[in-house]
Queue: 4 jobs
Job 1
Amino acid sequence: MALPDPRFSTPQVLGVDDFAIRRGQTYSTVLTSVEDRRVVDVLPTREAGPLAAWLDRHPGVEIICRDRSGAYAEGARRGAPDALQVADRFHLWQGLGRAMETCVAAHRDCLRNPTPSGMLPQDTRPASDRPQGNAEPVGRRAERKKAAHALVHEMLAQGHSRRAIARHLGWGLNTVLRYANAARWQDTIRDNRPRPSRLDPYKPYLEQRFAEGCTSVTRLHSELVAEQAPVTYGMARVHIATLREAPHRRTAAPPHRRGRRRYGR
């Protein structure tokens, strides 16, 4: 206790990392001197503002060794724009391990059920041989969805907010919310099949009348309304337009009529 306090000096190589005061809820930031491995300061949060303010009050930092948090990157840019930002060895290995784990998780089915020689892999099989209905989706797109879903939920379990995940990954917030709100990765695959329309039960009738030579949208719509069909004029017009554009309905364009040529005096 009688020893004097160590003299403070701004380190040239500053280490920036977060630590949990209450895991999953409250986090702070610890600043260390990488060269002599001593704690320099502790910030109350892990946001960009306090780090930028500390760097502004303590000029002289040349290298900032940090994790891959987007908030720390922003704070370092604002507080020490001339400093070089690098990743420390621990977070490099941690990032490599997470990327490997995500890749293995995406190909887990391939590891459990290796493809016999002479057979096509799942993502190159003909469309007729792929699982249909409620079967689990396969292919490169499904693997990307599975890996992204696993990555987002892993970062959520580590206590990162959805906005922080979006900044860290460079994704849109809505994309992160879609993965975060999905209990299973299969729920993130949207169904691209056309939605049912009120006109569907009446399309065979319209196609039959169109084939008979009745191509007037007004007349066809009036016939449907007379039968109390719950369809609008726009629905009928769009479907008749698709019938006109069908390949077997196209006819040759009429010959171009040349106008009379006027001769000057």
Note: Residues 90-111+138-188 form one domain.
Job 2
Amino acid sequence: MPLTETQARNAKPRERAYKLSDSEGLFLLVQPNGTKLWRMKYRHSGKEKLLSFGAYPAVGISAARERRAEAKALLIQGQDPMQSKGQSQREELETFEAVAKRWHDNRKSALNPAHAERVWSRLERDVFPALGHKPISDITAPDVLAMIREIEKRGALDISRRAKQGVGQVFQFAIACGLAANDPTTHLRGALKPRPRVQHMSRLPLSELPAFLEKLRCYQEEGERRSAITRDAVMFALLTWVRTKELRFAVKSEFEGLNGSEPIWRIPAHRMKMGREHLVPLSAQATAIAKKMIASSPGDYLFPGTHPDKPISENTMIYALYRLGYHSRQTVHGFRGLASTWANEQLVEFGKPAIWIRRYHEDWVEMQLAHSDKDEVRSAYNAAEYLTPRRLMMQDWADFLNGGTVVDIKRGRKRAA
């Protein structure tokens, strides 16, 4: 039944956009903000498309039906109404890039600024060159797949998936706004190249850690001072669970409260993988190393290289592990997995009859590792979250490295470190 003036006038906004159908593809799209937009769905050359006829009540029902009739006449002649006079401005406003800009502006206030910048940069680099200039309602699944194939040629399989996800989110926004009829990315399931099997960084079993630490304490290389810097850098990485880059470029000004009860290493956002500031609570053992290096090292870097104005090189620590006999058995990055394994195996006895529960909450462990949370709302966290329990956890880890005990999660009993 055709739409009536009363129905159009009295239509109230809802939580999500909805349609009031007229006839022959014409409908009124009622937006959550109360805006009412005339749209016409049609097919041309096998593609489903949408025309925009303006907003109600500026464009009344009669005027919208007249425009629908004009569009139908063009279709009978084999022409695409979208390409007719008067549609060029609509096309410019509703290209994929234009809609993506509206989508991004709509959501970026809820995102970490660095994450929002990465999302937009990925679209600019990989998506817009292929899809940005096209009217969003014209884009098909093969168009998106062709764009993805270009990314896959670089071997960037993780980026290709993120690009597909971003395109899909833009289309979901466009569908809600009445600018597209479907999301072409939903038809790409199984079409993307599979990720290669993840190769985890090499790490020792916890039982071999005491022998490794003893070898590290005796480490010698070309000079006594260089040996001490390398040894302390490796130990500091083990004590703090940070990534190699985060440690190499550490500067003395990032360390706070070293003479107090709550020493902190404040790593700036630009050096973090996830683009947000990270606070590392320092154990007494880590604090001792930081204080020693600040007092004895020239320049600004906590662990200087062969020149005081340059940081320790990226190969210095891994080569030290090679010299200690741990080639292919332990990497510096693998310390993070080693520490995570330890933290997740710590149990405490609770209740009667006795049950074993985790000593450290998984969120503390993930926060200490500065891992990204897939939930974007949750990831916009305060950098100091869980700081107190993480400080206790890191001190327990440092004490364990000095010969404490660990609880076997499988057997539920303590064993010597």
Note: The longest strand covers residues 47-56.
Job 3
Amino acid sequence: MRAPLLFHVYVAATTLLIPFAAWTQTRKMRRQGVSVLRAHEKLGHASQPRTGGGKLVWFHAASVGESLSVLALITRMGEMLPRAQFLITSGTPTSAKLVADRLPPRTVHQFAPLDARGPVSRFLQHWRPAAAIFVESELWPQMLRMTRNTGASMALVNARLSSKSRAAWTKKPSLAAYIFDVFDLILTQNDDMAQAMVNMHAPADRVARGINLKSMSAPLPTDPAVLAPTRTAIKGRPVWVAASTHKGEEAIVLEAHRTLLRDYPELLLILVPRHPERSAEIAGLINSGGFSCAVRSKGDHPKAGEAVYLADTLGELGNWYALSDVVFLGGSLLPIGGHNPFEVVQSGAAVISGPHVTNFAETFSDMEKSGVARIAEDGPALAQAVQMMLQDGAHRATALQAARDYVQDKADQLSSIASRLIRMLKLEDDIR
């Protein structure tokens, strides 16, 4: 397909701007604690060798959420392709840190190169991917076309574009057709997005509904060195978790906990704020409410009589999920949009959420129908939902079995997506 004029204009502009962009990006990353060696990955200079003799499959995911969402898919493809190597690129230091702690076997992480000829050329010459899989909405024109020109097969998975992005692509039909033509397969999150991709001039015969990868993310890690002493400190007390709470939600959760303590005086609330830097503010709220409190960042463990454990650290959420069958997922009692409920279900717990879950609306709807999730409209409803899980053994057993069934169903779907990608991207030579 012939490149449209707008693509040539874009290439010329990036050629002029790349010196400034390179200086700005590397300087920004150095300020965020990234080493010089790793910051230069933005310029296409690899910081690790390409190892192994098998094909290399490259995943590009811009954000933290996108990066974490593909780890389970990489793991499953790795099981099916035992000789393949995997590369995951992302754009931010935060995503790099979180991914580094959870990398699947035979997988390395690099920062994605800037979308200019020099950085992308260096990147592709070093890594030589046999296949490239792009996630959600990060579509860099030169990166896509130059990757395609190497002969690599390509896919777009979890495709999701905002209404603003859709409108922009629709106004540039020749450029959109030229960019979307690189993909051998485009898997969208739902039917509406599949139709939207076709409307944006993606080749209709290559577009299909897939699944939302964020609804089947990899299990959160746990640390026995953290779990063991915490279990000892709890000593069989009933526990519920309020995770990823935002400003304004902690007060609602604490009032629900106050109600629950009337019937369960030994009940422990593990309160995990979305932003640990708010720890002092939340500790003050807990104390002013008359609750005794232990604080994780101070090295505390909950003692008898302490009603709240403030888990104000990053990267330990899997530990807290492992301590309870009852998890309230924040960002949902106020119009924030909610967080990923699949991480909770994978831990073996049932999910309670507020009503504001637009970020994961389809997942929550599916989970509600399956009996895995329950929506609590406000604080009193939250207390009632937690109490039902604590006091009704049959209800709790049914919810937890539904959670196990849901996880198994998603695992089957993940295997199906992995098989489809392997087939469409012509990776069968490395299959087991």
Note: The chain has two domains: 5-216+416-430, 224-391.
Job 4
Amino acid sequence: MNGANVVLGVSASIAIYKSLEVLSILKKRGFNIRVAMTKEASRLISPVVYKALTGSDVYVDVMEELDFESTNITHVALSKWADIFAVVPATANIVAKLANGIADDPVSLVGLATNASKVIAPAMNSSMYLNPITQRNLDILRENGFLVVEPIEGDLACNTKGVGHIAFCEDIADVIESTMYFKHFEDKTIIVTAGPTREPIDPVRYITNKSSGKMGFALAKVARYMGAEVVLISGNTHLRTPYGVKRIDVETAEDMLNALRHEISRSKNEIILIMAAAIADFKPSEFTNRKIKKDGSGEMVLRLKENPDLTVEVKRFADSLNKHIRVVGFAAETDDLINNAKKKIEKKGLEFIVANDVSRSDIAFGSEENEVAIIYPDGAIEHLQKSPKQQIAYEILRRLI
């Protein structure tokens, strides 16, 4: 998706500094950016700052149009150039203008002229945001194709707390990026498991593994980009929940199984289940409710028993409800990658399995990149070369369309 063009509209909210962070995130993701500002916004942060970050002139004054794309009708040229038009932050004033076809500043001019995908991130006082007129205007924008990144509750400029605080910058950037994806899964629920499970030994110790959850979180993020209702069932991680994704945190394999059963039973859509979590194969045979102390023997014997196979159990549960689910498995192996993965695909009745070699330091647990083999029930194998995990996630999901 790199290389898409974004016109970033900036209006005069006290949250204007957040537009610089969003701009920076988008640049890192490979977007081309040009900025249009209201005159009031240019008094809060100089256009020189935006020019320095984008390398392009900033559209500020409708009476002094830029020579851009061989025309000095800047708002028309920018509107044609843009793949995405995003207003960050959006005041009540600019929301009202865009909703009612008023075009008397650079931001509203481009917004009215463009056929690009449109995103808006409101930021204002709670009373202004909750005012029925503002809510009506936002509804008009939604009805006309705008994606509204809802403000959150937080500290406001008037020394109060309430809804109206601009959304997190990563979330705004995610919504902007999501406009570049076709919504292939709009009528589907995709449930993704991610991260490690932890099996307690005593109140302070547990068995776990090195999974970071990054692959599963990337799958959840891209599935949401592609229009799915996404449920992310995650073991212990410190990762940010992707925007628009329902997250359920669990500890043990049994917790994860119970969460899976609940989500499968409640969903009314076609379900795709992607089992990307690193689920503990074993757990202690007994849990001791007091911390185990040293006894001077120099060793301790820990007896383990197998956890249930969650994929098998979940498919059995879905069958009992007469629900058909499509299941994708993951195989994290250290040796004999393909053969070990093939055994799992036969045992679990998977749509396909994604196998990766976790003995490699460059793509092991915690890495930002992955390299995988997709293995199908008929024995066919596709190799996905080393790429960022978000790109691998897209390639996996693309094979489920």
Note: The mean pLDDT is 94.
